[in-house]
């Protein structure tokens, strides 16, 4: 984080306009309220806020992975491709959406590592992404790409022949990140991707994500309740409270000059941020474990949509 962090909002890759999501029932919850947000090409946008404020609902809404009783009540999400065309995600049908998801926008959720099929090798599961989305690719190229992907996220190529149970949680989550990167997406949405992992592994993976972002130029919406971590890795941060974005600014401005009362309280709630020297920049990783999200449900949804 530094004051001169470049911002890319002049060249947006995703624009979210007046986006609202309700959980409809006897008591209807307005989980996301009139959110307006722009994700710049190649930007890491942090989304912070306490458990239950609507972060995951927003993520699922952007990628159209919501299930009933969730209902998008207002607004829309536009994707602007690097080739120059724009798609309104709310108008895409099932097939188009499925294609879109891994190809243009991919996702990594907290429980993603548990969604690997235990009886299928890592190679076969990675290969599946290419078989489904790049049917013209030769077998040799597929296998080579799968190996490259693993190495990219810091897992040895030889692990291709492993089964998920032979890998640690951190390695399995890396495999999921590799899978999310497989098709060179322009946007990755990461919802608490490292929260279930221990602090050292979390740190390694975050370094990997920021390095790959510089290398490959994808944009990231990085969601976590862990504000110190977001301050470290984000270009800009949006603070969410009770379904609304209450503040949006560069990480540096947000930290040094928070405007909203809630942002101030949130900052104050992390002891590592209030130390005299503000040394969170080097040490501020929290290992709170909150808010388990499972990818299995999402995959089932994708499979049946
Ligand atoms: N399937 C559901 N049915 C009803 N309400 C839900 C459902 N999922 C989430 N909610 C409610 O929506 C709000 C936002 O939840 P969520 O998006 O999971 O927050 P976060 O990810 O920030 O912890 C919460 O009040 C939660 O109770
Ligand atoms: Mg959540």
TrEMBL record:
Domain ABC transporter: 14-267
Family matches, as SUPFAM superfamilies: P-loop containing nucleoside triphosphate hydrolases
GO molecular function: ATP binding
UniProt key word Isomerase: no
Keywords attached to this entry: ATP-binding, Cell inner membrane, Cell membrane, Membrane, Nucleotide-binding, Translocase, Transport
Residue ranges crossing the lipid bilayer per the database entry: none
Keyword Transferase carried by entry: no
Any Pfam family matching the protein: ABC_tran
PANTHER family assigned to the protein according to its UniProt record, in alphabetical order: ATPASE AAA-TYPE CORE DOMAIN-CONTAINING PROTEIN (PTHR43297:SF14), OLIGOPEPTIDE TRANSPORT ATP-BINDING PROTEIN APPD (PTHR43297)
Protein's name according to its UniProt entry: ABC transporter ATP-binding protein
């Amino acid at each position: 984080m530094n004051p001169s962090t470049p911002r890319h909002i002049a060249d947006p890759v995703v624009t979210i306009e007046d986006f609202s999501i309700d959980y409809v029932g006897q008591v209807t919850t307005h989980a996301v309220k009139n959110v307006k947000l722009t994700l710049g090409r190649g930007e890491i946008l942090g989304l912070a806020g306490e458990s239950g404020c609507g972060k995951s609902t927003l993520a699922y809404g952007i990628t159209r992975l919501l299930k009933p009783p969730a209902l998008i009540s207002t607004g829309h999400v536009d994707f602007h491709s690097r080739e120059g065309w724009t798609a309104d995600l709310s108008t895409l049908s099932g097939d188009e959406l499925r294609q879109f998801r891994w190809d243009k926008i991919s996702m990594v959720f907290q429980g993603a590592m548990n969604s690997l099929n235990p009886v299928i090798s890592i190679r076969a599961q990675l290969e599946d992404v290419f078989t489904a989305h790049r049917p013209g690719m030769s077998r040799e190229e597929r296998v080579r790409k799968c190996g490259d992907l693993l190495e990219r996220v810091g897992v040895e190529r030889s692990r291709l022949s492993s089964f998920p149970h032979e890998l640690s949680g951190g390695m399995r989550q890396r495999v999921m990140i590799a899978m999310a990167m497989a098709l060179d997406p322009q946007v990755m949405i990461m919802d608490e991707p490292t929260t279930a992992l221990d602090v050292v592994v979390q740190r390694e993976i975050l370094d990997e994500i920021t390095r790959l972002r510089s290398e490959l130029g994808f944009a990231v919406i990085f969601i976590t309740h862990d504000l110190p971590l977001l301050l470290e890795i984000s270009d800009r941060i949006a603070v969410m409270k009770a379904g609304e974005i209450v503040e949006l600014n560069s990480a540096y401005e947000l930290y040094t000059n928070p405007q909203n009362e809630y942002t101030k309280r949130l900052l104050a709630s992390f002891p590592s941020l209030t130390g005299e020297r503000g040394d969170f920049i080097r040490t501020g990783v929290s290992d709170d474990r909150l808010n388990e999200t499972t990818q299995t449900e999402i995959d089932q949804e994708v499979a049946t949509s």
